[in-house]
User: Which sequence fits this backbone?
């Protein structure tokens, strides 16, 4: 989960996402619309009988606040809340498992703030079943072939590995760039990202407001996506002044056509 505002639990119920599926929460910064729902969710997990650890990755100042809230609102939890402070000034790996890595992305807001880049690890190539059958290759050799081995027939002929496999699936990635002023160099950290979520609080006619409050316009978000050669851009964090966010979408699409608007309950395939 990325950020945890008020109403998070209600949204989880609406989406029928099991609370037990959440193993880690990544908080971008300490503004209420990004973290005020965290302690309530932690408390609910406890009441539902959770026993697996919950990992919290967040800017360092959250540590003291979280410790106090847990003491007051969540005494006697039957599971461990593991807090991991994140250096919001560094672009570095903060989490890694067998399938992906997560890096922190330094952002520029009124308080310490970072985004997150989620990247799949490369997978192995796909075995060509037709070639497996053609050369009567035993299944015991599949892992060797996936790791690059050729096949030698009983007659001594060598079948090259490239004839036995198909390319692996492309590596997918997702960059979450929360509240931030426009950063000229941001695209360098997310080059080639599959899906970029970038805040777009204002349209360009309110760029002075964006500068004042350390936010971005839709056009600036599109410039980041364009310069990063992203495959898709998703806008979010709209100012309440806009009853219809199409003005933001149209502005961004002028720069980066493959742009969509985020919305509650929206499901996006990352490809």
Assistant:
């Amino acid at each position: 989960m990325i950020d945890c505002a008020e109403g998070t639990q209600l949204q989880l119920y609406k989406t029928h996402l099991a609370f037990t599926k959440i193993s880690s929460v990544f908080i971008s910064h300490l503004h209420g619309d990004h973290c005020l729902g965290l302690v309530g969710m932690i408390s609910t997990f406890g009441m539902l009988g959770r026993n697996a650890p919950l990992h919290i990755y967040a800017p360092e100042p959250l540590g003291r606040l979280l410790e106090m809230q847990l003491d007051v609102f969540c005494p006697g939890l039957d599971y461990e809340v593991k807090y991991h402070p994140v250096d919001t000034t560094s672009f570095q790996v903060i989490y890694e498992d067998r399938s992906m890595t997560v890096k922190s992305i330094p952002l520029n807001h009124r308080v310490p703030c970072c985004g997150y880049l989620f990247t799949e690890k490369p997978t192995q190539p796909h075995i060509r079943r037709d070639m497996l059958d053609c050369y009567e290759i035993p299944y015991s050799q599949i892992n060797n072939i996936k790791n690059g081995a050729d096949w030698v027939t009983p007659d001594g002929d060598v079948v090259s590995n490239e004839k036995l496999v198909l390319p692996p699936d492309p590596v997918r990635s997702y960059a979450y760039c929360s509240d931030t002023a426009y950063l000229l160099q941001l695209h360098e950290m997310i080059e080639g990202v599959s899906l970029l979520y970038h805040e777009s609080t204002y349209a360009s006619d309110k760029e002075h407001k964006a500068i004042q409050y350390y936010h971005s316009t839709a056009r600036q978000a599109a410039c980041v996506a364009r310069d990063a050669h992203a495959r898709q851009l998703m806008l979010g964090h709209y100012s309440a002044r806009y009853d219809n966010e199409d003005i933001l979408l149209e502005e961004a699409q002028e720069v980066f056509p493959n742009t969509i608007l985020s919305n509650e309950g929206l499901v996006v395939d990352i490809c």
